[in-house]
UniProtKB/TrEMBL annotation, chain A:
It comes from Meridianimarinicoccus aquatilis. SMART domains: AAA. The lineage of its organism: Bacteria, Pseudomonadati, Pseudomonadota, Alphaproteobacteria, Rhodobacterales. Gene3D superfamilies: P-loop containing nucleotide triphosphate hydrolases. This is ABC transporter ATP-binding protein. PROSITE patterns: ABC_TRANSPORTER_1, ABC_TRANSPORTER_2. Pfam families: ABC_tran. Residues 8-241 form the ABC transporter domain. Keywords: ATP-binding, Nucleotide-binding, Transport.
UniProtKB/TrEMBL annotation, chain B:
GO terms for cellular component: plasma membrane. InterPro entries: MetI-like, MetI-like_sf. Signal peptide: none annotated. It comes from Meridianimarinicoccus aquatilis. This is ABC transporter permease. It is found in: Cell membrane. One of its GO terms (biological process) is transmembrane transport. It is a multi-pass membrane protein. Residues 56-238 form the ABC transmembrane type-1 domain. The chain crosses the membrane at residues 7-26, 60-82, 94-116, 122-145, 176-197, 217-241.
Amino acid sequence: MTYKPAHIELRDITHAYQTEAGPLPVLDHLSIKMEEGSFTAVVGPSGCGKSTLTRLIAGLMRPDEGQVWLGGKMVTSPRPTVGMAFQNPVLLEWRTILRNVMLPLEIVGKRMSRTAQEDRARELLSLVGLEGFEDKRPSELSGGMRQRASLCRAIVHRPEVLILDEPFGALDAFTREDLWQTMARLRLEEKFTAVLITHDLRESVFLADNVVVLSGRPATSQFVLPNTLPTNRTLEDLYSQPATDMLAILRHQIQVAQGRAPADDAKATA
Amino acid sequence: MNTLRKLAAPITAIILFLLGWEWLVWVNGWPTYKMAAPSDLWPAFWKFRWLFLEYGWQTLWRTVAGLAIAIVFGVAVGMVMGFSRTVRDGLYPLLVGFNAIPKATVVPILALMFVGQHDLNTILIAFMISFFPIAVSVSIGLSTLEPEYRDILRSLGASQLTVFWKIALPKTLPEFFGALKVSVTLAFIGTNLMEIISPHGRGLGALFDSGKINSDYPLMFAVLIALALLGIVLYYIVVALEKTFAGWAERSPT
């Protein structure tokens, strides 16, 4: 058997923020491995350092201790092979939807011709159901549509790593489910290793191959749950017995992380 | 219909205002040294029409020059303050203090400092009085930029300068134009302050002063009207620029 390095690897990361009241530890010897092309969801109690994690993977911050490795290289600074989407779609009001999606290509797609850039953006927009909205302004779109455009912008430059920081958190329940399906479709069409930060356990079960539960602050990887659902999932699968079992386990683990339930006898690890 | 309404409404308002003014003077039987009526102004305008053109032009170009310096300086200071917390904390009291000084007191100081250089003095006052709102608005616009806006480009390895050009600058434009509308009026006040106070001045302010010295009251009022007209023109030039460069910030009613 040949050893295949994980595409994203967090090695023993410890990090604290310096505040006026002294250091505030957020991550404590955190280690996570993600295979190439995998989809990992990270869940955990509020304020456990999930967003810090995204900034570390993106190279926007460096950890106090430990290392982040992307594709066999240590991350020391931001790199163009990363795409990010946030809870706030942060579209630029003065640009049309099409030009918003093309924004990353202006930084990293210099070798692409202008027409190729535009074709690429249009292709993605039609993939997420925004055909016909290319020339609209962000303010003319609904919250769900803006988030779709934001997803397109995050992957337009074909990043190796897609970082999603609660991108569906501010949407209503039905729109959110629509967006989950859009995300699943994007994953079939595009190649990337995805990290999804979320508060929604059903979301993590629907989208991810592995769900990592972080402990309370300072956070460490408390539990990893491999997804047992079929790869080609439908929303109905979320109401099947395996899904219900997984949700129950995750719910229990969150309560452990919050300190509301005792840790299990069989402390599962991956 | 819409354009007609847009034009007709302000014109009607102006006509009503002038009629009301005329009526007020007529009903009270005020002499011109108390208050000149609009009908007294036209002869004053006509008599000094060439002076009005020449001096009006002088007032205009000095105001615009002072404003231009204020924009360059204000944007530069605003940028530095917007990007660095230390600089912001350091400069704020200084700027506020400077802004609090009544500019009328600076006029004699400048006039002494650059004796006889009337153009320079006037432009300097226009600049000093008008850069503050610009600096503050740009610094607030930049410092309140949500971190995610930076992150979408920074995560791709873009430089601070790229983030500034592509995101921070355009996002600050609506605030900038809001401040510019205040500044354009302020610069105008500054120009006239110097023109009125400075001896041997030129420009509409000096014309006002000579009206005062010669007890030509209709002339004084005519200058005020001319100043108002120039102010309106400058203001709407800024509005037109705003529509061109930051029109996206105005949401169409749906």
